[in-house]
Amino acid sequence: MAPWLSMIMATKISRVIFAAVLSLFIADVHAMQGQTTAGSCSPSVGTQNANSSIVISCSYGGSSVQDSYLIATHPTRVKITGALFTTWVEDNSAPFLSLEFTNDSDLPALSTKIDVLRQESAEAFTNMKPYAIHRSRIFRQLDANSFSIDAKSTITLPIVSIEDLASMILPQVPRDYCAYDASIGIGTDPDEQKARTDMLERESYSLFFHPESRGTGKAEFANLLQVPVLMRIRFKNVFGGQSSQYTKAFVYYAQRGSTASIWYPTTKKLGPLQCIGDDSPHFTMSG
Description:
14 strands; globular; eight-stranded mixed β-sheet; 7 helices; four-stranded mixed β-sheet; 287 residues
């Protein structure tokens, strides 16, 4: 391998994923045995972007075969399709971890509620206690603890403030690390691999035509963490049934002072480290 290529590949990016959480979303027999939701309930396990999700649906069977068929053929489905940091006018532009909810069914999802759960509080998902987080002023101004999602629609709402993440939910993250993005997926995005390959080719091309720059660069580094936050989404359908979904969003952290280009899953671009809350760009939104 050419010396100049070795220099480029000296860039070091270390990723640490909290492995303990990966086992949480494997179909745990004890968790399924501890379900206490009343009614005719059925748990199922699925995946999205390598992120496991457990859904417990409890439906009203209907008074006739026709009713039961109507309910079975018109399910209401709500998914978390995105996680990102946003700032909101109602919260004086304080950064919030926000979630994108998508209802891809033909009927509305009613009385939708979301909780951030304390994983260590219980073994069974349904017995886990929620954190007493500080809700966004959007919910306080509306005096509402729940919301509805129209059929075939997507909404984005603030869930957890950056302060609550640091002080209450993820205090184990080292103090010299800062949050810089979020996602519902885990691991390396194929788009990131392509972007880094393209960047390597551009740098190789530059060094080939500017050999005087060889050996003058310093090895870059970026120490990264992908830390999960466990969520519970509950909603009702128009038939009186209810569903609870347990899934997670990942907060991306980097050690302050990192010099290597970092992948931002929200924008799908490489760039220098910009910590959330350090005058970094956010999506400013209004309720």
